[in-house]
TrEMBL record:
Highest taxon, organism lineage: Bacteria
Gene3D superfamilies (alphabetical): 6.10.140.190, Winged helix-like DNA-binding domain superfamily/Winged helix DNA-binding domain
Organism from which the protein derives: Levilactobacillus namurensis DSM 19117
Annotated ranges, domain Transcription regulator PadR C-terminal: 130-207
InterPro entries: Tscrpt_reg_PadR_C, Tscrpt_reg_PadR_N, WH-like_DNA-bd_sf, WH_DNA-bd_sf
A Pfam family assignment: PadR
UniProt-recorded name of the protein: Regulator of phenolic acid metabolism PadR
Domain Transcription regulator PadR N-terminal: 44-117
Length: 208
């Protein structure tokens, strides 16, 4: 157990301490410095490339698969929408339903679609640091006989099992057949990756 925990912690802290290092620049002219670029704009572009959406729709998207690997709050999304519209990357139309106030329905422009495609085509040469409070706490436990470890692991098993069950349900719901997979293959890969990640994490926890 000690050797496996040590290896996990060494990887965690290597990523954690490296996150503040000056990021490398790409060799392509006009590309931003990796690590300083605001990736939220690209998530919004990608979501709007799927379909026109309101700000509320975009916020709710982070409750599902995107929330597995990226988080954004209401206070971040709406200012970004305003900036992107000013830059000509998106536009909006006002939609009124019944007696409700008009809602802005955002759409991707040609400029925005070009920016999205350019970003997807760029290399991704750096790993993003992972923040895991459980792993952080383990780092400061010295002994394999520490009485707190079993309860900590049990708590994590419960959390990760619930997450794995949720992911399996999402997979069955969103991708019931091959046609659905073919229609959104990248999305399918993300779910598959999340399921394998949780499965492996649980296997590691259950060994201890």
């Amino acid at each position: 157990m000690v050797s496996e925990v040590k290896a996990q912690l060494e990887l965690f802290f290597k990523n954690w301490f490296n996150k503040d290092r000056k990021p490398r620049q790409t060799g392509q002219k006009g590309l931003s410095i990796i690590g300083q670029r605001n990736r939220l704009q690209y998530i919004i572009l990608g979501l709007l490339n799927q379909r026109s959406q309101t700000g509320y729709d975009l916020t709710k998207a982070f409750d599902h698969e995107i929330g597995e690997f990226w988080q954004a709050q209401h206070s971040q999304i709406y200012p970004m929408l305003k900036r992107m519209e000013t830059d000509g990357e998106i536009t909006h139309q006002d939609a009124v339903t019944g007696e409700k106030l008009a809602k802005k329905v955002y759409q991707l422009t040609h400029k925005g679609r070009q920016k999205l495609e350019a970003w997807i085509s760029e290399p991704s040469p750096e790993l993003t640091a992972t923040k895991d409070e459980f792993i952080l706490k383990l780092y400061f436990i010295r002994s394999a006989d520490d009485p707190r470890i079993p309860a900590m692991i049990h708590e994590q098993v419960t959390l990760h099992q619930a997450q794995l069950d949720h992911l399996h349900l999402r997979m069955a719901t969103v991708f019931p057949d091959q046609a659905a997979i073919d229609a959104a293959y990248g999305h399918y890969l993300i779910l598959e990756h999340a399921i394998e990640r949780e499965t492996q994490y649980l296997a590691w926890l259950n060994r201890h």
